[in-house]
Amino acid sequence: MLSLHSFFQTLFQAIPAIGVKAFRQMYLHGAMLTTGCMVISVVAFSMACFGGSGENAFAAGAQVQTGEEKPGYGLGAALLGEGPRDGLGGQRTNAEAFGDGAMLEDWLARSKQPEPETYGRSAGQRTGKTEESCEKGSILIGDVLKEDTMMKLESEQAVRERVGQAQKEIRVQQVADAARQAKEEVQRKEEEARRAALRIPYSEADYQVMLQIVQAEAGGCDSRGKILVANVIMNRVRSSEFPDDITSVVYEKSQFSPVSNGSINRVQVTKDTIECVNRALDGEDYSQGALYFMNRSASYDGNVRWFDGSLSFLFSHGGHEFFK
């Protein structure tokens, strides 16, 4: 009983080891089989995709139809061991050749080299098409460059024209400005000459008398009215019909009512009157050569009749009428 018990115990302990060993062998066999299938698939795929161009496939079909055979009849037959013997006396089958790798290496070498005629023809066609494409591309690029060059030339021409037009306008404007400046300079010099001719010599006493008479006669007038009164006095100084200085002209008998009634000595000269007198003494003149002026509403009737009958009316401003 003890021996039988020991036998069964040993048997049951060995079963798992046997199963593990069998599983390992099956795994190894399966891995080898899978690897072989992958190799066969890769080789078959290489033959189908890279064995030759469409023309090689067509030639292979023609050979099969005509019954021609070549060494290395077929990879499938070689793998299955059903290929014919080679033409040298049947020394070994395709399967045997494939078994030691000789045929596989030979087939791979031949499959990587396309037939010379077919390759040459395809390469020639590709070369011709490539040259034609390059030529068309060159023509297209040339046209684009030519068009771009023309556009640049046109743009440069337009820019030059605009620059030329701008320069012309600038020159015209410069000429116009120069002419205007020259004209203004001439006018300025003429005005200076005119004012210089209108200026009169005067003393400080003459200056004070001028301030007083302008304030007394035109203190309520605007600046132009004050300058006009000073102009009339200066015109008399320059005229041969009246005295030669301001004080004598102002204090001549029966000429200015502020002198007759003494108001000339009671006035307060304003800043505006001083400025207007200075402008008149500097040559600013609006009088048109007037030698007389009167306020019609404040004058005696006899004086008004004499002005109207004996003098020439020039203009009126600020309540005063000016005569010559």
Q: Count the E strands.
A: 3
The sequence of SSEs as H and E is: HHHHHHHHHHHEHEE
Distance between the termini: 177 Å
Uncertain segments are 52-91
Rg is: 66 Å
Portion of residues in beta strands equals under 5%
Morphology: rod-shaped
CATH architecture tag of the domain at 202-323: Orthogonal Bundle
Helical percent range?
over 70%
Structural class: mainly alpha
Give the biggest sheet. Answer: 3 strands, antiparallel
Subunit organisation of the chains: single chain
| Total of DSSP H or I helical runs spanning 4+ residues | 12
Task: Enumerate the strands of the largest sheet in spatial order, edge to edge or round the barrel.
Answer: 1-3-2
Average predicted local confidence, pLDDT:
76
CATH topological fold name of the domain at 202-323: Arc Repressor Mutant, subunit A
Tell me the name of the CATH class of the domain at 202-323.
Mainly Alpha
Outline of this structure?
This protein is 71% helix and 4% strand. With 324 residues, the chain is mainly α.
Task: Describe the protein.
This protein has 324 residues and is mainly α. The chain is 71% helix and 4% strand. It is built from twelve helices and three strands; from the N terminus they run H-H-H-H-H-H-H-H-H-H-H-E-H-E-E. The chain has a three-stranded antiparallel β-sheet with strand order 1-3-2, with helices on both faces. Helix 7 packs across helix 8 and helix 8 (223-238) crosses helix 11 (271-281). It is rod-shaped. The termini are far apart.
